[in-house]
Structure formats: structure tokens, C-alpha cells
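To the team - pyridoxal-5'-phosphate complex, inputs and output below.
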Amino acid sequence: MILCSNPQAQYVEHKEAIDSAISQVLQSGIYILGPETEAFEQEFAEFTQTEYCSGVANGTDALLLALKACDVGEGDEVITVSLTASATAAAIHQSGAEAVLVDVDPESYTLDINQLQEKISSKTKAIIPVHLYGHPAEIDAIMNIATKHGLYVIEDCAQAHGATYNGKQVGSFGDLGCFSFYPTKNLGAIGDGGAVVSSNRALADKVKLLREYGWKEKFNSSIHGWNSRLDEIQAAILRVKLKKLTHLNKRRSDLADIYNRKLAGLDLILPSVQDSCGHVYHLFVIRINDRDRLMRHLREQGIQAGIHYPTPLHRQEVYQSNQDDLKITDAYCKEILSLPMYPELGDNIDTVCSAIIDFYKHK
Ligand SMILES: Cc1ncc(COP(=O)(O)O)c(C=O)c1O
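Output:
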């Protein structure tokens, strides 16, 4: 079976370095928030061109901690897209605020700037742009709008480690940037993990307090926090993989070039890269009318494709907002298909392309 994503393949390729990093932690006797986490935080802040980083338990918590650091809570509205992982809205809900969902731009599949402006109200406190599939949102325009209205910007970078806008790393534009290290991500742990980056000292300090019971010093809470710590084993693994991230992203980009070349001319829509954007292809998402039939055909050939996401947030029971103005999101959710994409995919990409070409021959 050719999987859609395959974190095990990455472990196998870097087994020696990962095993050794794990073993060192096991022998150190320090298992949570120790030297590995501290070193990773420094290295990841440097990578994302920010001043501060806090390692946290997962990407959903990263968003929640960022929202809480900005004092977002009951009575506030937070604007984000409907075409995203449930996690984005889950974090907003958990903060006590209401998620206001907007459509995506038809080319970049990221937050629609026009709808964003229409939906800003007196209750709006923050915007969460999602750098979906590894493609940056129009972050310059979003920052301008946020500044004009006095809103916080919290970047959801869970799918975009290393993506750039005008050569600058995502996560470094907003007040805070939030990352997930779920195993399939471009930078993935072997378990859960996340990080919040920022160059705003006060916000970064608050995230650090919030992630451990609001402790200013041990056993002494100065604000209400909870437990959202990164453990040392995950931090040590992330340090190994961070050194390889640029190379691993390059491999994703080379694979995207192969897909683009081999699938050109077929009756499907390939992903586009907008000006000034450095795409890191967390997912390689095509659009096709006959999506479900192609997906079945691929499965019969032993190829797993995915859908990110089959039901947009505004059509899910818990977030239902009965909105009819998210037309691109509604239309695209019926057409999108994520083809296998991970750095170790290698020559398997030829099998995937042949199977797709074969589908069109027999259509
Ligand atoms: C866009 C987006 N935001 C947030 C998250 C949440 O990350 P986690 O699964 O680590 O909580 C994810 C990952 O699933 C994601 O894809």
C-alpha cells in the first residue's frame, strides 16, 4: 500500500539518530521540560525567525495558549476559515470565544481577504489565518487589516513548517505563530507535540506561564494556567528532525514538481503557488469533478489518497452556522483529493501518476 503520509518511513530513514536521541533522554533522568526542550525552543525560534518559542503538548493547545495569551475569551469573536482542521475551531471554542468562519481564496485555498474585512465586527478580537496544505495565507494583507482594526493575528502554521512569504518564515508575521508536531507534519514528533513562537516578549512570557499552571516559580501560580508541556523525548526527536527539515521540504517540493509535470494536461486542477509564496507541500491537493471515483480507483491499485477536508467546519454538527456564503469552500470540499506526499515517497510517485493517467484512459 502506498500511504498518503508515512511517518514510519521517516523514522526508518533516520533510525540511528532518533534511537540515540531517545536513549540519551532515557539515561538523563529528565523527562519533561529539560535541556532538550530548552535547546529545541532556541533552535526552533531561530528557524522561524522569531525571538521566543515555547514547546507545548500539541498544536491545538498551541492555538489555545496563544488565544489565552491575547486574553481572548467569552464575548469575543475570532475569525478563521471553514476549510481547516477541526483543531483550529476547537481551540477557539475552548477559549470561550466564538469562531466566525470565512471562505477561502479560490487560488491559494487560504483565508479570503474580502470576506475577512466584511466579517470584522465590534466583537472581533483576533484572526487566525491557516497556512493550509503548506501554502502561506496572504499574510501581508492580513497584517495590514489587523493593524487597521487593532486585532491580534495568530498564525496557524500546523501544516506549514518552513513555508515563506516574501522570503520570511510563516509564524514570524503575526503576534504569535502556532505549530503542531503531529507525526505526519513536515516537522513531526513520534507522539504529540506543538510550539508557540513569537517576537513579543510579553505574549511569549504569558504562554510560558500558561503552559505550566501559571507558575511564575515552581508551586506558585500567578495566573490561571494548565498543563501543556512538551516532553524531553519528543523535543530530542524534534531536534534531530529540525536539522533535516529544509532538506525534507526540498524533497517534498521536488515530488510536487514531478506530480505537476506528469499530471499536466489531465482534466484536473493542480495546486498553484501564489507570488511571493514558498510552498512546503504538507499535502499535495488536486481538484477533480470525479473525485470519489478516482479515489476508489487509486485504492484498488493499492494507493491511499485523502480528503482534507470532506466536511467544512460550517457544515459540521457542532460548528454549524448554516452559512451559504462560503461558496468556494462548499464547492472545493467535493473536489479536493490529497495525493500521497511525504519526503520518502521516492519512486512510488511514478506508480501514483501512472494510476491516475490510467484512470483517465478508461474514463
Ligand atoms: C491546520 C491545523 N491546525 C491545528 C492542528 C492541531 O494540531 P494537533 O493535532 O497537534 O493538536 C492541525 C493538526 O492536526 C492542523 O492541521
